[in-house]
């Protein structure tokens, strides 16, 4: 997988969904589906047992869905949405990860982000780091103005 910025038209940033970004979008899509279905099912079937945990799983799923779409679109306003959702994802997995280790009693059942995503092979912890790196890597080149004509 080539991480060069050469797949973009001259003068523009590469799309977040090109090259390595295709794999990133696919992984986000799989996690979005898994987390959303899990959270929705748990809320409907067992909502009274651990409503906070199941709501967090559903929230994580929704964040992953929006991040997937934003990374797939990858330009303009979608790029900003990707930055925000991937950042929220990182803050969420770090916060919930710490809380589930410090006071596991607050979470009677696991969420997608519990134990830093342990139930998902730590993908929820690694994925936002990779996503933020990719957004930074594919950022638009700074605009430089030509010197005024003499």
What does this structure look like?
The protein is mostly helical and 150 residues long. Helices cover 61% and strands 0% of the residues. The protein has 4 helices and no strands. It has helices spanning 20-46, 51-73, 77-102, 123-137. The longest helix is centred in the N-terminal third of the chain and has 27 residues, at 20-46. The protein is elongated and about 70 Å long. Mean pLDDT is 85; it is low at 1-11.
Distance between the termini: 45 Å
Structural class: mainly alpha
Strand content: under 5%
| Rg over alpha carbons | 18 Å
Question: Could you spell the SSE succession in H and E letters?
Answer: HHHH
Largest sheet: none
Mean pLDDT metric: 85
Discrete helix count: 4
Multimerization status: single chain
Which blocks of ≥5 consecutive residues have pLDDT under 50?
A: 1-11
The count of β-strands is 0
In one word, what is the shape?
A: elongated
Percentage of residues assigned to helices: 55-70%
